[in-house]
Design brief:
Elements lengths: L19 H13 L1 H13 L1 H4 L4 H26 L5
Helix pairs in contact: 1-2
């Protein structure tokens, strides 16, 4: 029995190595997961709040900046009051 012909297209993507397995899993689920998976994926991508993630290194950098600002404010307060900041 001949297989039904499906329209396909080969694409070449450049992604970070750490995301390779994830991309392969998503493609596999698109192929085998049926319309339910595709619909859920489309909803996730359309949800602006879900798609606005921040890499851990950026979170750490922002916390470091905040920590430096707090320390500077504490030091300024200590100088202003002539003692240690609490």
């Amino acid at each position: 029995m001949p297989k039904s012909k499906v329209n396909t297209k080969a694409i070449n993507l450049r992604i970070e190595i750490e995301h390779e397995d994830l991309v392969r899993d998503v493609i596999s689920q698109i192929r085998t997961g049926g319309p339910g998976f595709r619909t859920a994926l489309e909803q996730l991508l359309a949800d602006e709040s879900a798609a606005q993630y921040m890499p851990a290194r950026e979170i750490h950098a922002r916390f470091s900046q905040l920590e430096q600002r707090v320390k500077a404010l504490e030091a300024a307060e200590a100088r202003e009051h002539g003692g240690e900041a609490s």
